[in-house]
Design a protein that fits this description.
- The chain is an alpha+beta fold.
- The chain has one helix at about 40-50; strands spanning about 1-10, 10-20, 25, 55-65.
- The chain has one domain (about 1-65).
Amino acid sequence: MTRYIIRVGDRWVTAIYDTRSNGIGFTSRKEDASSWSRYETAQDKALVLRGIFAQEVCIEAREEPDYPRSWNLQPQAA
């Protein structure tokens, strides 16, 4: 399943709770970034982040399994 992650400068977004306070989480590890299922949602978030930070804001697509990571399941080899 294709999902979308956001990078601000050299950090990846982990969460956006509230843009008026300290409600934006970041990580330096791409694999820990939060993802959004719709490009339009990621684009809306990226536009907000672009208005706050004076750094490059990018959206990347990545393929994820069609089940939550918390299940700790590995994809089956074909």
